[in-house]
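INFO worker-7 received task bundle
INFO bundle size: 2
INFO processing item 0
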Amino acid sequence: MYLLDTNHCSYIIDNEAQVIAEFRSRSEASFAISIITHGELLYMVEKSAQKAGNLKTVQFFLNTIGLYLLDEETAIIYSQLKIAIFNQFAPKDQAKRRKASIQTLGFDDNDLWIAATALQHNLTLVSADGDFTRMQQVCPLTLESWK
């Protein structure tokens, strides 16, 4: 089972040859996205200049792929992952530590939710985002990039 991050969904929607080839080579596998990725894709449509055409394309993609919702277990994993990342990457000096946030450490909350979903369901996360690679220092996240 693969959980596709937003960037790889965009690559598939944009028909990027290398990613499409990797996607097709796993034709026996199951693919899904997080509800977070679903929202990010719709946000991209909303800010685009060609909303109507892009919405049709994105809706077609969304109708062909599985969807994982967030639940209480996802929230627990998210909170544990977030504190583990903070403890690993935040400054050790207490004054600097108090001023640090997940964002200032170079992580995005949406990516934490996506990683928590992958961890909860034991999925291979497919992403080109470097923050997921850094997350592997604190959790057993299985990660691939097809780009």
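INFO item 0 finished
INFO processing item 1
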Amino acid sequence: MNMIAAVDGNWAIGCKGKLLVSIPNDQKMFREMTTGKVIVYGRKTLMTFPQGQPLPGRTNFVLSANPSFSVKGAEVVNSEEALLSALKAYDDGEVFIVGGESVYRMMLPYCDTVHVTKIDHIYEADAYFPNLDELPEWEITADSDELTYFDIPYTFLRYERKTKGADHDFLL
């Protein structure tokens, strides 16, 4: 599975239920990588999407602890086990975990690749992505030249798990 996130210099991803910054090139890359794929996210992340609706052109899974929560255009699952079971129907490489913090932390053990937009700035934040630079099983396998949006420098990075497949017995 894949993850995709934009993080600041402290691996922050959000503040008060909103993204830290919107960079058009990052949004374009997100669209290109996830369109036609399966995306997985939590209910709070859904509320940050346009009109609080699932993203079009993708198979949407929303993780919510509330068993009565439902949303048109997405499959709602209520537990990690239910999500993993539902994802067995899809190719591992077609699945993207897209947020937020609790979903990223829960699903990181099942992922082999993480696409990170690393923003060279520190924002006020209350939600964080796991710092992959501090986790020895992850390594950067691709990076872009530094790009700039107004005065905000950022790079696109790809992290890959050094021992692929180690935690993926659920897919067998």
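INFO item 1 finished
INFO post-check item 1: The helical segments are 24-34, 43-46, 80-87, 101-107.
INFO post-check item 1: The first helix runs from residue 24 to 34.
INFO worker-7 idle
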